[in-house]
Amino acid sequence: MAEKSGIVFIGSKMPMDYVLAVITRLSASDAKEVILKARGQAIATAVDVAEITRRRFLKDLTASRIAIGTEEMPAREGENRTRMVSTIEITLTRK
Amino acid sequence: MAEKSGIVFIGSKMPMDYVLAVITRLSASDAKEVILKARGQAIATAVDVAEITRRRFLKDLTASRIAIGTEEMPAREGENRTRMVSTIEITLTRK
Fold first, then answer.
1. What ipTM was reported for this prediction?
2. Cα–Cα distance between A2 and A10 in angstroms, integer?
């Protein structure tokens, strides 16, 4: 659910799973910042996670930086070309 | 598909439908800017639209501002409380 320093990768679980990861991350250490990374349909979940965390739990949190991009993914089995997939990075910072 | 001045509302159609709306909007007038608005699952489509337009068609386009938020939606039939839904606004600007 949560890997590397300060990065939470958003996948296909429920938003609350990731919200807990973000809160844990920001509480356990003296980290001031967490970056949510997602691609494809999980982009909508990433925005949910940022909004739920900020509105319900850590009111001093802001989305200090939001970046979108595109990644090339290897072809799936039975396909013969790579796919382009959209990505988002949301940096959440404590005031 | 496209309403009001410079705003394109992203719904459940294919990304290319909205890409065309953005290109039309930016070509027909001397508009330098289009704002994509989406909520819920359509947030992922909005990011696709921004990325496809920028990478394939209008290379001088940048996502100059990205804002996320939450909107309260009226309760659906059979439900008795309002729902919170995440939103995104992506401002695309020509250089």
1. 0.88
2. 9
